[in-house]
Amino acid sequence: MSTAVAQQRGSVVVAWLRLLRLPNHATAVADVLAGWLVIARPESVAAPPAAFWAAAAASLLLYAAGMVLNDVFDRELDAVERPERPLPRGLIAPATAAFVGWLTAAGGVAAGITAAVLSGHPAVAGVAAALAAAVYLYDRHAKPTAAGPLVMGSCRSLNWLLGMTAAGGPNEAAEWLPVAGMGIYVGGITLFARYEATLSSRRWLVMSTAVMVCGLAIAAGYTVWLVGQGGSLWLARAGLDNWLLLWGVLTASVVYRCVMGIIARQPALVQRAVGNAIMSIITLDAALVLAPCGESWAIVSFMLLIPFLAGRRLIPPT
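^ that's the sequence the OP posted. Answer follows.
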């Protein structure tokens, strides 16, 4: 094989990895794992059951579908605003990308049905189908509208529910708090990123940051509720105050990056804040796991940062 051919094939592989936003897939797994753990609350670290892995596969496939179809539907706009992306550059044919997008969407729903069969909980299949519909609705219709952030946030909430329903939940009203809170948080990220390719409005960025903080406050309500229900072994040792301190530090790290973007409003800093907020989904999920399941499972969740950070060196997360 000649050097030129090898380089061409390598560039195509990188183009596909970029089209898929591969590093971000770790955040999808983090959500499903956190959702499963919050309901199952295993006493020790062990391999999750097959139903969890099927739910995680559904999440990954539907996330991939969302990323690919996003660029398929946006290719004309990206030719102007983001010409560095694979489709505007001609590295991947739009028809090929569309085929892969629809194929992975169908695979995601099939994996959700498999998770429902393996777990004995039909709700998993319904959640997978709803997530597929939300992905299509966002990519094809809702993205440029006022409903766009709401639909994107619902995708993240449904991702959490994939893990929860695979474990037989949610069973309590308060278990919906991290579902709603993380959905609102991601809706705020979507708002913050809306004009990331141009000069963003400072007022818009401030409002978006406030939405993110609101979502994180709602998600924290789950741990507060957990204490009222008798807590957990970890909370008995460390206490709610220490968990809230950790949550506050994680929230502050997100807000700090956002403030840097608000001050400058330049695309580079806004995109950096968006990338940090996306990455923080993994650490936030790990913190939400810490309270009910303890340090070991929180570390397992946190380790999903490794593929995210390794992939981000090659592939932009936005």
